[in-house]
Structure formats: structure tokens, C-alpha cells
Specification:
The protein has 311 residues and is of the alpha+beta class. 51% of the residues lie in helices and 10% in strands. The chain is built from 13 helices and five strands. A five-stranded mixed beta sheet has the order 2-3-1-4-5, with helices on both faces.
Amino acid sequence: MARRPRLEAENAVYHVLNRGNYKTDIFVDDRTKVAFLKCLDEVCGKTGWRVHAWCVMSTHYHLAITTPQPNLVAGMKWLGGTFAHRFNGLRRGHGHLFQGRYKSHIVDPDSGLGPFCHYVHLNPVRAILCEVPDLARYRWTSLEWLHRRRSLPAWYDPLPALQHAGALPWTKAGVASYLKYLDWLAEDDLAQKELKFATMTKGWVIGTPQFAETLLKNQQALVRRGVRCDPSLRLAQEQIWAAVLSGVLAQAKRSASELRAAPKSAPWKLELGARVRGRTTATNRWLGQHLHLGAPDEVSRNLGAWARQKV
């Protein structure tokens, strides 16, 4: 099966993740972690990437990056290949280092980037590698870098995390406030749920349904050029349609059981169908199934008639 193309764009924001082959410990000592960070420094110099947060664990790494130029694929090819070559040189090994193709999520810079940076910074706490009070001194996340502003590479940009945590400045006082914020966040399950920590490494996008819908519309341009849409994108698209439907149902103070019971051509159902179709790229088939509006041709005919009455 052909691989789906990565979605690349100027100033796109990504979460990039890769794991050791068979989930083996590849970052077993400080030397390998330092070597990886050196490769990261070099690739940022080559590509112009800005890194907002990073974390190196024993089996994997996380990066939150912005690509000013659409060069994620080229940069990750260099990063993965160069680090694997240097790693095998250090260990006098050979063969595949990572489990396969790196995983990338597109991140909404407005609603998703700040929360994802917090997620990355708290990774060692979730892995029980350190306690929250010791997190600022843990060497293998970008959080520790916040205390060393004058000695950091130019590509490091933590401002999205500080901004999301309360428009904090990158000062000693601002960093102290950010650490208090992380301390609170680490203990507040409801806050983590609201920030969608549980889905940070799932799916393909980190952000609002509206942001994902816009990306999927762009994906449709690829489809029109003959590029086959990946099943995970189709599934994500339908999840977004379902979220929009749930929202319009709530606004109308209607329930799913009422959708099932009402006639196909009930005016209020047609209004909801028109609202969903106006906000998404939902197909007539999907609308017919989920709003119980009938077959695709009935949906098209009835929604068209309803729209003409409103003009």
C-alpha cells in the first residue's frame, strides 16, 4: 500500500514522535541523548525549524516544532537517518534504529500548541522518572532550558507554552509561575481532560474540530488531484462531523432519540442538517444515516427544498 503524503505547509506546527524498534531503549545513557540533541540542533540550522518543546525518553522522543518552510519530510529524513548512523557508530551496531516511519500530528497553533507543550514537559512525571518539584532540574526536556535563556540555541521558542499558561513573560518570575502552573496541572485530572492530554498521541491532529475541518478541506484538494485519502483522515473527518452534529443538537435542545423518531422531512431536522452541511463537508449519505433523513437523493432533494423556502 502506498504511503499517504505528509501534509506540509509554510509555518505549519507539528508534534513529531518516534520510538525505538520494538520499543527498545535507544536513549539508554546521556551520550545518546546528547547526540540526538546535537542532531536536532543541526537539522534546525538546515531547515529553519523552531522547536517549542522537546522531551527525550528512554524509548522515544517528542518534538513540538514549527516549520517556516514546508520541509517536515526532508528535515525528518535527515534527522532520523543521521542520528541512526551516529547511534550505530557509537554502539558499533547496524540495522533499523526506529520502529518505522515517524508519527506526526498537525497542531493548531492557537488551541493545541500550548497544551501540547505542557504535555511534553510533564512526560517524565507521567513516566515516574521524577516528581513535579524536581521537574525543572530534569535534564531531558526543554523545561530545564527555561532557566538558561542566554545560552540557548536560537531555534528554541517556548513562548507558546508560557502564553497559554497565562500570558507569562520569559523572565525569572514568569518561569516560576509556569512551574507552579505545571504543578497544578499535574494534579488536576479534569484540567488535563479539558486540554485533551489523553488524545495527544492519537489520531492525526491536535486542536479544535474547526481547525481539523479546515485541514481536511485542504486534503480534499489532494484527492481531486488523484491522491488517495488515508483511512485515518476519513475516520477523523467523520468524527468532526459527529462533533458538529452533537453541538447543533445541543443548541436546538434536541436529542438523538428525537432524531430517530421524527419523520425524515421534519422541518427542524432539515434545519439541523443544513446547519451541519453548512459548517462541514459532510456527505448526503452521512447526513442521511446520522440525522435519519433517508437515502442520499432524499437528503439532497429535501435539504434543497428547505433552503429554497428560506430564501
